[in-house]
Amino acid sequence: MGNRNAFLENLGAFHADLSFLRVVDRNSAAVTAQDLGTQFSFCHIDGGHSDQETFADLTLCHQILLPGGLLALDDYFNPSFPGVCEGAVRFNLAHPGALKPLAIGFNKVLFQKPEPAVSLNGLFAKTFSQVPRDAAELWGVRVNVFWSRLSYFFDLPRSTVEALAPAGGMDLRATYQPETTAVKAARGERFSLPVRVTNTSKITFLCGYQTFGLSYHLLSSDGVSLRHDHDRNFFQEPLDPGDESLITLSIIAPDAPGNYLLEIDIVWEGVAWFKDKGNPTCMVGLEVE
After folding, report:
1. How far does CA 226 lie from the centroid of its chain?
2. In sequence order, which residues have a C-beta less than 8 Å from that of residue 133 and are 6 or more positions away?
């Protein structure tokens, strides 16, 4: 169902001269390494999603990749296409160590055709220390896991194909309007507080697990910090600059009775609390009975 003209038009939006391009207009099952050569540094698989198709595409790409070359496999963890994971695991069982997992993120898994002299994840950590990442294990190998949009951390207009230019300082700004500024709760009680959040920064607050979340810091009545981290209430929808959203903040009252302050704040998981970037927080009084 591919549209060759649409494909070329899309490429033309990025490259004025497409003379470098060679379009192979065939099913990948009919393409061989002899057709393509063996000098590729990068392959991206997003074709058939069955076990057999994924296995065949991985086999072909492994054959044409240079040592150290990268391969991005789309939909590995997508529950709508279990064949992708099945085909990838079958490839690894048939060719153990032929592809090394490097990273997970953005609905893809990134692999490398092993090159013992190069540790790309080590080099990434050193070169792009500002980019937040978690760690996981896949196929017995430690991999990076990315949740946040990478474009936040780079100045694309200043970047080139040879080097990515890091972005300047993050301007993380938001305002908070809690439903009330004073609440009562029993010891250890979990309760909810609706808070209207307005995005006053220049970036979109992403939604989903490990992205942007509304939370709070627990302070004594005279403002001394008692506990910094609490549950995150991650945004369920993206919040664009200038937009607002009503978010339900989940709170657990301390076990000891007394008067406290709840300092409402947003955390960009793995990056920063907005408070630490100079954004004003909002205080709500809490009386624990």
Report:
1. 31
2. 103, 144, 145, 146, 270
pTM: 0.76
The neighbour count for residue 66, using CB atoms within 10 Å, is: 13
- Are 206 and 235 within 8 A, CB to CB? yes
* Secondary structure class of 170 (helix, strand, coil): coil
**Backbone φ/ψ region at 126: left (φ over 0), alpha (ψ -120 to 50), beta:** alpha
Cα–Cα–Cα angle for 69, 70, 72, nearest 5°?
155
Give 80's Cβ-side CA count (13 Å radius).
Answer: 4
What residue ranges define each of the domains in the chain, with the CATH number in brackets? 4-146 (3.40.50), 174-288 (2.60.40.10)
Q: How far is CA 8 from the centre of its chain?
A: 29
Q: Kindly tell me the burial class for residue 153, based on how many C-beta atoms sit within 10 Å of its own C-beta (0-12, 13-18, 19 or more).
A: middle
Shortest CA distance to 84 belongs to which of 123, 52, 41?
Answer: 52
Q: Which of 25, 75, 27, 24 is nearest to 51 (CA)?
A: 75
pLDDT tens digits, one per residue of 142-196: 999 998 888 888 888 888 888 888 887 778 999 999 999 999 999 999 999 999 9
